[in-house]
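Same chain as my last thread, 273 residues:
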Amino acid sequence: MRLRNVKTLIQGQPTSDGNKVPLVRLLPGAGLRGSEAFRLMDPFLLMDHFGPMVLKPGTDAGFPPHPHRGFQTLTYMMQGAFRHRDSTGGHGLLEPGGAQLMNAGSGIVHEEMPVAEQVETGGPIEGLQLWINLPKSEKWSQPGYQDLPAEMMPWQAFPGGRLRALAGKWLGRKGPVETPAKIAYAHVELEAGSQFEHSLPEGFTAAVVLLHGDATVSGRSIGLDAVAVLEEVGDGVRIETTQGANLMVMAGLPFREPIAHYGPFVMTTPEEI
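reply #2:
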């Protein structure tokens, strides 16, 4: 296997969104404009690591109703629980290890707020939201929503760690997420002193995101809440850790189509915005 080297490191930018939810904007990230990130990480548009935070009893920090158009959101929960509601009538519960895939398409309004039990008792909240672009042919598609409970994405053990496949094929198991964009996306946990090596699809944009712990990617150290964007040359990645690590590994086939964006709307021309 010819390992891909790290092309560039993008440091996440601390901020907040929704109802005062602290998060790190991994993409576009610090010092990177949206258009630069779109070209660098095509077909991925934005990635937020929200939390980790501990809600005090009576706190409803979440993401009240807001619109999207022209892409898909893939939200993955690590701690706590959110309820989802949207303008198509879609609704569901997002619990630890579970995910939701929402197609904004021609336009949708949705909300993700803590469940009533967590508002009452308080507790930890942590997760990730990834924006995945739609090709021009799908920008006006029918909006919709899909629940992906944790049992659809079981942990797979390997020597020194475990992996949860959300999209694409990992360790022989295919994740349940299907999108017009061809993507691979996995949550990897490594024990102290271990490593993980895996093939990557040829021609795909690829990156590793370190959420907790320490890691080197193809021999290069990366920091917390940093996106290690990999070179195009090579067919695999190796991740090593000394103290243990919690990471996301992602890859996607670029569309290389024009992008026009304004806040939560991502189309191909300004006129469509």
